[in-house]
């Protein structure tokens, strides 16, 4: 195997797939990238593949290939060399059992592993294919993905097609976020749970998505990401979205976020409880921490109903308010012990539910 | 009850040579291994103090990067940082590890 590639191209393709590779893997082949130099009618290209057994990422870039071939090399070493190489081109050749990387007057000899040892993922067939800006669909719901090891089926974003829309939902049992857009595909597909790590690796912009019951494939230009899905049953989230909350309070997102941050200064590190007391035209935020003191703040709101108190975790509240575009947010409440619903006229396709907490 | 306390005190004296002091009012200490494990799972696992790197003191002694409060508290010593809040144990020295945020213990569950 022998090829020459632009340093920037090599750094780009390695950067794209090395995020998939586990840095602390005890299995050497899983710390490696599969390099594949090939030629076709359009010229030569280098394809780099990385995997953690659940996700496979492939990126390719044009290269001047003198001798095609495949080999595995440590992802971190090659990534560091590509980033720090002094010249604009990098020449790579396989000499016996060493990979020689030359750039300018620098020369590196790296240990290799056989390409045949690199794990492969069976592609199979897909039930539905469509083009969508998946990163934008997932962006406002990602914060609610659970980190609970026991409820593994909440450690991802649930995506399904419903009534001509594609719906993305994430919940950790305390808050829930739902974002939906028009479904651009034709074939309906069963609900899937996209793992948290895959969500973090999504390329920005419109991508080509292929979905089956066990896998999702995302293609964007020369970058292709194939990931296993979480094999579990997502809870019936529609059951927990209240529809009868009649007390509607409209507040400015910045006002609420800043006031919550201010009063939570005195809250305990754990369980940042903030009590919201809504009365006609105003909301009072208060925090009472027996160890450090208390704090209150007030903001103007649009509300003319009976006074109502409700307690939220301040971190949850600020994070949730932050997913909406700047401007007015509508909070729909039933009583102080029931889930509350947050919506915004500026983002009608977005809805969030937050559970209350006990406030003393 | 007093007889039972005396029995346990006698057993402790025979086994470890001393009886740990009773916790001051409002302080908490684990009553069983299960209770200690639950506390570690809910608090220490999400706290930066239990994830410090090992270090070497000025005399060249290797000092493991563990939480001193946890280290001392788990062998029965009453720790000032371990208190009872709202009928549940809490740690006043808790500092959340941003990479592993803690789950709110007081927010109601959806499911």
Order of helices and strands of chain B: HHEEHEE
Q: Provide the CATH architecture of the largest domain in chain A.
A: Roll
Strands of chain B, total number: 4
- Note the gap between the termini of chain B: 41 Å
Oligomer: heterodimer
CATH topology of the largest domain in chain A: DNA Polymerase III, Chain A, domain 2
The computed structural class of chain B is alpha+beta
Task: Tell me the greatest interface.
Answer: A-B, 28 and 21 residues
Helical coverage of chain A, percent range: 10-25%
Can you count the helices of chain B?
3
Shape of chain A: elongated
Strand order of the largest sheet of chain B: 1-2
- Intertermini distance of chain A: 69 Å
Give a quick account of the main beta sheet of chain B: strands, pairing sense, barrel closure.
2 strands, antiparallel
Mean pLDDT of chain A: 92
Number of strands of chain A: 25
Overall mean pLDDT of chain B stands at 81
Q: State the domain count of chain A.
A: 3
Describe this structure as you would to a colleague.
With 360 residues, chain A is mostly beta strands. Chain A folds into 3 domains: 2-117, Roll (DNA Polymerase III, Chain A, domain 2), CATH 3.10.150.10; 128-239, DNA Polymerase III, Chain A, domain 2 (Roll); 242-354, DNA Polymerase III, subunit A, domain 2 (DNA Polymerase III, Chain A, domain 2, Roll), CATH 3.10.150.10. Chain A is 14% helix and 44% strand. Chain A is built from 6 helices and 25 strands. In chain A, the strands form 3 sheets. Chain A has a 13-stranded antiparallel beta sheet, covered by helices on one side. Chain A has an 8-stranded antiparallel beta sheet with strand order 14-11-12-13-25-24-23-18. The N and C termini of chain A lie far apart (69 Å). In chain B, the strands form 2 sheets. A two-stranded antiparallel sheet of chain B has the order 1-2. The radius of gyration of chain B is 17 Å and the shape is flat. Chains A and B meet through loops of A and loops of B.
């Amino acid at each position: 195997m022998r090829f020459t590639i632009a340093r920037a191209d090599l750094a780009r393709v390695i950067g794209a797939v090395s995020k998939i590779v586990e840095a602390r893997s005890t299995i050497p082949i899983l710390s490696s990238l599969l390099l594949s130099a090939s030629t076709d009618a359009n010229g030569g290209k280098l394809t780099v593949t990385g995997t953690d057994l659940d996700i496979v990422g492939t990126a390719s870039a044009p290269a001047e290939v003198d001798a095609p071939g495949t080999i595995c090399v440590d992802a971190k070493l090659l990534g560091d060399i590509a980033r720090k190489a002094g010249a604009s081109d990098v020449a790579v050749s396989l000499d016996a059992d060493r990979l020689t990387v030359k750039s300018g007057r620098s020369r590196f000899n790296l240990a290799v592993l056989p390409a045949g040892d690199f794990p492969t993922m069976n592609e199979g067939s897909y039930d539905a294919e469509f083009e969508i800006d998946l990163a934008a669909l997932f962006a406002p719901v990602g914060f609610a993905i659970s980190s609970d090891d026991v409820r593994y089926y909440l450690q991802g974003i649930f995506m399904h097609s419903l009534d001509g829309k594609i719906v993305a939902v994430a919940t950790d049992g305390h808050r829930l976020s739902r974002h939906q857009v028009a479904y651009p595909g034709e074939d309906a597909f069963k609900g899937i749970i996209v793992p948290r790590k895959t969500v973090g690796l999504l390329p920005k912009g419109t991508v080509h998505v292929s979905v089956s019951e066990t896998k999702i494939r995302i293609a964007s230009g020369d970058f292709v990401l194939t990931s296993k899905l979480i094999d579990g049953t997502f809870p019936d989230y529609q059951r927990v979205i209240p529809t009868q909350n009649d007390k509607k309070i409209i507040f400015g997102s910045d006002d609420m976020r800043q006031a919550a941050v201010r009063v939570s200064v005195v809250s305990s590190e754990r369980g940042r409880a903030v009590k919201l007391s809504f009365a006609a035209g105003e909301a009072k935020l208060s925090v009472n921490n027996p160890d450090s003191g208390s704090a209150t703040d007030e903001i103007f709101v649009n509300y003319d109903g009976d006074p109502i108190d409700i307690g939220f975790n301040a971190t949850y509240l600020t994070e949730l308010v932050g997913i909406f575009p700047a401007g007015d947010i509508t909070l729909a409440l039933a009583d102080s012990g029931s889930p509350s619903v947050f919506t915004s006229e500026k983002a009608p396709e977005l809805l969030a539910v937050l559970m209350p907490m006990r406030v003393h | 009850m007093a007889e039972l306390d005396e029995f346990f005190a006698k057993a402790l004296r025979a086994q470890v040579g001393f009886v740990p002091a009773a916790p001051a009012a409002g302080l908490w200490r684990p009553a069983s291994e299960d209770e200690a494990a639950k506390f570690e799972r809910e608090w220490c696992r999400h706290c930066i103090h239990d994830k410090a790197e090992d270090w070497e003191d000025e005399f060249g002694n290797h000092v493991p990067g563990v939480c001193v409060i946890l280290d001392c508290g788990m062998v029965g010593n009453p720790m000032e940082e371990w208190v009872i809040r709202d009928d549940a144990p809490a740690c006043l020295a808790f500092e959340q590890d941003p990479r592993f945020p803690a789950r709110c213990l007081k927010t109601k569950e959806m499911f």
